[in-house]
Specification:
Blueprint: H1 2-19, H2 22-25, H3 51-61, E1 67-72, E2 75-80, H4 83-92, H5 111-115, H6 122-132, H7 138-162, E3 169-170, H8 171-188, H9 201-210, H10 216-227, H11 229-234, H12 244-259, H13 267-277, H14 292-306, H15 308-323, H16 325-342, H17 347-352, H18 354-366, H19 390-410, E4 411-415, E5 438-443
Antiparallel strand pairs: 1-2, 3-5, 4-5
Helix pairs in contact: 7-8, 7-19, 8-14, 8-15, 12-14, 14-15, 15-18, 15-19, 16-18
The chain binds protoporphyrin IX containing FE and 2-acetamido-2-deoxy-beta-D-glucopyranose (NAG) (3 copies).
Length: 449
């Protein structure tokens, strides 16, 4: 008996050893520090050492390599470190790398999450993606610009009010109010009044949905899905937090109201229109009418992908501009020139501002809030080519540019005393500023442009 167990253990160990020869056998440099069975995945258990720091360390250690070998437990995974190669995989050879990690969700509560673009794969993903794509096209984003502009104005008013009683404002929290306002208004038309501090329910629920401050339990559960997706499937562990039900109800309710009339041109309306368009008998492309659950899922996805990422990005940019006053002044001058040219901050003006765009790209390069993207190598897909990522980004950039432009025309930003360097939150997932980070806003005397 004991002998059999020992034999099994040895066999398993040898198997693990064998799996972990994959990269060496192909002459690919393997990141050191992998262990039997878990491979490199044990590195993710350290809550005090976030994943982005680990990835950064690997990248710096292997400077000059275009890629390196990583073992996701027993699965060989290629980590790309070369921007051109990344582009090839995500855009040019996209058809070979269309799928994302499959978490094998089986719990009832995950019915919605499974429908989200980011969690679906194969044909289903492709079809939802092509139905949804047009809602982010440039004419639509231009159409939604006024909704965002209202929120950017409200942010500026909020900052004016807050600085009367505070010498510095919390970086992430301030921008999170703005991005939640924007996303709940633009995604499904709920006015959250965050700036007034009213109706905190949506804010609380969104924070809980994402658990921004990172509960240990939640992190552990996410890790379980990364490490043991099959066991999670078997035990029907739910991937989604309970708060998802709240959003499902809010959005279903809103959809019912919209069916009775009262459109506002937000993403929910556009998705419902896209569903109607699919009923057109003359439609050439294969039909794919969106189900209610899919529309609800994408609305919640917009909160998940659009709230925290954008708030964090704005925080990093604002902080960098505070650190580099000359660049801040240069950007302000560009914005003033645009206002002079167009009379006001228009969609065209903002999208043409070259230095504004460069500042955002540079901030994203230095502090990428989402620091890894995964793709599974799939077999040949030989039809429609769908370009990756352009859509959501177009909206995000407009949102970020507008807020920055309005802020810089009204305030000078500078570092709070003692906070001249960025401190990062020790959160398990994305890269964020520490919640204690503050920034100073000083009103500009704005008599001449
Ligand atoms: C500056 C803030 C943002 C950053 C840095 C960012 C970054 C990213 C990245 C890296 C991905 C790819 C994830 C993957 O493929 O695994 C992604 C996907 C996505 N983003 Fe954003 N994003 C931002 C804001 C937004 C906003 C405001 C929206 C609008 C609702 C949005 C909509 C989407 C959608 C729908 C996807 C999924 C696309 C798909 O599955 O094909 N993002 N984003
Ligand atoms: C990077 O290199 C140092 C020095 O060789 C080593 O101690 C460290 O473990 C390496 N880090 C990673 C993530 O491989
Ligand atoms: C965007 O999509 C809408 C509806 O599908 C369409 O009417 C419009 O022409 C598109 N605009 C662009 C710039 O593609
Ligand atoms: C996230 O989880 C932590 C730990 O349980 C908790 O202290 C925190 O309040 C939660 N964050 C939010 C925004 O709910």
């Amino acid at each position: 008996m004991l002998f059999t167990v020992a034999l099994l253990v040895v066999a398993a160990w040898l198997y693990s050893k064998y799996c972990h020869t994959y990269w060496a056998a192909r002459g690919v440099v393997t990141i050191p520090g992998y262990i039997p069975f878990l491979g490199h995945s044990h590195k993710l258990f350290r809550t005090s050492y976030p994943r982005w720091l680990y990835i950064d360390e690997v990248y710096k250690n292997l400077t000059g390599s275009k890629f390196c070998g990583y073992y996701d437990q027993l699965t060989p995974t290629l980590m790309l470190m070369d921007p051109e190669l990344v582009k090839t995989i995500l855009i040019k050879d996209f058809n070979h790398f269309a799928d994302r990690r499959n978490f094998g969700m089986t719990s009832k509560r995950d019915e919605t999450v499974k429908e989200m673009l980011s969690f679906s794969n194969g044909d289903h993903w492709k079809r939802i993606r092509s139905v949804l794509s047009p809602i982010f096209n440039s004419s639509r984003i231009k159409g939604i610009f006024p909704l965002v502009a209202l929120k950017a104005d409200a942010l500026v008013d909020y900052i004016h009010r807050e600085i009367k009683s505070h010498s510095a404002l919390p970086l992430r929290k301030t921008f999170a109010l703005y991005t939640l306002e924007v996303i709940s208004s633009c995604a499904f038309g709920v006015e959250t009044n965050s700036f007034q501090g009213e109706e905190q329910i949506i804010n609380d629920m969104a924070d809980k949905l994402l658990n921004v401050s990172g509960s240990r339990f939640r992190n552990m559960k996410t890790l379980l899905f990364f490490l043991f997706p099959r066991s999670c499937s078997f035990f029907k562990i739910s991937f989604s937090p309970p708060e998802i039900v709240f959003f499902e109800n809010v959005i279903m309710e809103t959809m019912k109201q919209r069916e009775k009339g009262g459109k506002r041109g937000d993403f929910l309306d556009l998705m419902m229109e896209a569903r109607e368009d699919q009923k057109d008998p003359d439609l050439k492309a294969p039909k794919y009418p969106l189900k209610d659950v899919t529309i609800v899922a994408e609305s919640i996805l917009f909160i998940i992908v659009g709230y925290d990422t954008t708030a964090t990005t704005l925080s990093f940019i604002a902080f960098l501009l505070a650190q580099y006053p000359e660049q801040q002044q240069r950007l302000r001058q560009e914005l003033k020139n645009i206002v002079k040219e167009y009379g006001t901050l228009t969609y065209q003006g903002i999208m043409q501002a070259k230095f504004l765009d460069a500042c955002i790209s540079e901030a994203l390069r230095l502090h990428p809030t989402i620091n890894f993207v995964e793709r599974i190598c799939t077999k040949d897909y030989n039809d429609r080519h769908i370009e990756y990522l352009k859509d959501g980004m177009r909206f995000a950039l407009m949102e970020v540019k507008l807020a920055l432009a309005k802020i810089l025309l009204d305030f000078e930003v500078s570092c709070a005393p003692g906070q001249e360097q960025m401190e990062f939150a020790k959160s398990f997932g994305s890269m964020r500023p520490s919640p204690d980070m503050k920034i100073v806003f000083k009103p500009l005397i704005n008599c001449e442009q």
